[in-house]
């Protein structure tokens, strides 16, 4: 199978954005809070947006299954208070769950959390539990910076995050470390903010000893790990300076990277530097980069082509990247596929 572990509902029906605009206005002191019951999205609305977009491209590119979560840039945890985030997370999670129900062979749910700046991470537990136990989520997106670029949250190694980690280990689901929209205009959301956050998350983990307390916890750092593979020597040297073990022993039993890297040299670097067992196939489709590369004639985010073409993987290693690693890192996904006879 070709399992894409990183997809977002970026093509959700326009009604969702219109409802969110009303909620944002309310959060800014303008008007009343919109009623979630007033948001009407039909199954046909969902089918139309998926069949003409994600599903069409999956079929064209040969991808079998996508772990599908709410649009990351729409999480925007810095907008409003905890109640606003709780309502918004519930709506978005319910919507992606409907996608997986309508297309059970092609999509499986990942969830967002109702994080809010300054709030105890434990406030996200009820929605995490609901998403897994009622909606069938096999991963969550965990925002290390709910403030939207101000970085006011404690590092991921801080004990305040432990209630989330305890539940992730209990449920056997990984967290994708994924920020959302930047509230600072000098940062481009899907450019420097996303990639900088990926790098920051890795460095936070390097400085700490989180996995001594949670040896079974799994994190996925998206977008190829930001700057991490390119600067692997720097991080190895910093680990030595900080008295940490080699990165393979310190982090790579627990930290994984996806293939959302949009050119062949980038995938070649990733697959040369990072052990194959720590690489998960992903495209982020339809996401940050949606155009066709004029140099190749193919979409930038058609990452399967790069994985197929890299000389750094054997056929057996490619199978791990495309399927085997995902089934190992996402046990609930593996069990769901096994139940389908796959």
UniProtKB/TrEMBL annotation:
Domain Amidohydrolase-related intervals: 3-331
What are the alphabetically sorted keywords of the record?
Lyase
Q: Name one Pfam family in it.
A: Amidohydro_2
InterPro entries to which the protein is assigned, alphabetical = ACMSD, Amidohydro-rel, Metal_Hydrolase
Highest taxon of the source?
Answer: Bacteria
Bilayer-crossing regions: none
Q: What is the recorded name of this protein? A: Amidohydrolase family protein
What organism does the record attribute this protein to? Answer: Microbacterium schleiferi
Q: What is the lineage of its organism?
A: Bacteria, Bacillati, Actinomycetota, Actinomycetes, Micrococcales
